Amino acid sequence: MSEFEVPKTSCPWCGHEMTHAGDPFGMNAPKPGDISICAECAGFLQLGTDLSVNKLEPSTEVYLMKNQPEAYANLLHLQSVILERVEGDRTS
Ligand SMILES: [Zn+2]
Q1: Which domain holds residue 23?
Q2: 89 C-alpha to center of ligand 1: Å?
Q3: Per the structure, how many domains does the chain have?
Q4: What's the CA gap between 3 and 26, in Å, rounded?
Q5: What is the pLDDT of residue 24?
Q6: For residue 54, what pLDDT is reported?
Q7: How many angstroms separate the alpha carbon of residue 4 from the centre of ligand 1?
Q8: 5-53 pLDDT per residue, tens
Q9: Distance (Å) from CA 72 to ligand 1 centroid
Q10: Helix pair angle (69-91, 58-67), 10° resolution
Q11: Which end of the chain is least crowded, N or C, by CB within 10 Å?
């Protein structure tokens, strides 16, 4: 997974301040419409036209599930990795 800088913004799910976003699909440059994930709460995100970070619309998630099952599986895997790490942080 690569990381890219995004305009300073807060996660719409948890309020975590973000300056970088992970790229689960290994694309190099962020572009509007790209899907990402919050490294803090593992909430699914989608970049807006100005690279602002928005919640991933449920309809988009369903579309992804149906049309890009491999990408969606990657996203779910990434989410489980983040959640495990967050749990680990809390118990250590
Ligand atoms: Zn978050």
Answers
A1: 2-91
A2: 15
A3: 1
A4: 9
A5: 59
A6: 93
A7: 16
A8: 766 788 999 999 877 666 655 556 778 888 888 888 999 999 898 888 8
A9: 18
A10: 120
A11: C
- Report how far ligand 1's centroid is from the alpha carbon of 91 (Å): 19
Distance from Cα 56 to the centre of ligand 1, integer Å: 12
Tell me: the pLDDT tens digits for 45-81?
Answer: 998 988 888 999 999 999 999 999 998 999 999 999 9
How many Å lie between the centroid of ligand 1 and the Cα of residue 48? 16
pTM metric for this prediction: 0.78
Q: State the distance from the centre of ligand 1 to the C-alpha of 68, rounded, in angstroms.
A: 23
- CA–centroid distance, 42 to ligand 1, in Å, is 6
Structure tokens at 21: 């976003």
Written as six digits, the tokens of 9 are 């913004």
Instruction: Kindly state the DSSP code that residue 71 receives in the 8-state scheme.
Output: H
The single-letter code of the amino acid at 72 is Y
CB–CB of 53/6 below 8 Å?
A: yes
Please count the residues of the chain. 92
